[in-house]
Amino acid sequence: MAKFVMLTTLTDEGRKTIKENPGRIKEVEAMGAKILAQYGLLGPYDFINILEAPSNEAVSKVAIALGSRGTLQTMTMAAMEVDDFIGGLKK
To answer: pLDDT of 31-86, one tens digit each?
Structure first.
């Protein structure tokens, strides 16, 4: 399965929602992506999520579903193991 990094920034509505329902942070798994790691951040982004999903299309669907709620904005990037990256350079 492919790995992805999803950076999220909460909107004003998102901050209210998280305060009222902190468990909502983990709802990504119900949308078809597996959470490998999640961290709260200080800085321009509020959370970083390391996800595993079957395809770019699957993780795009997750990002759109989350963003359509109006509670957060996402930036999603495909990720690969460093050894795989290095191996690709040697080909």
So the answer is: 889 999 999 999 999 999 999 999 999 999 999 999 999 999 999 999 999 998 89
Nearest 5°: phi and psi at 27? -70, -10
CA atoms within 13 A on the CB side of 76: 23
Reading across the β-sheet that carries 72-79, which strands appear in turn? Answer: 34-40, 47-53, 2-10, 72-79
Q: Where are the alpha helices (DSSP H) in the chain?
A: 12-20, 56-67, 82-90
Neighbours of 13 (CB within 10 A): 12
Residues listed for the chain: 91
Domains of the chain in start order, with CATH, are 2-90 (3.30.70.920)
Q: What's the CA angle centered on 26, arms 22 and 42, to 5 degrees?
A: 65
CB 53 within 8 A of CB 59: yes
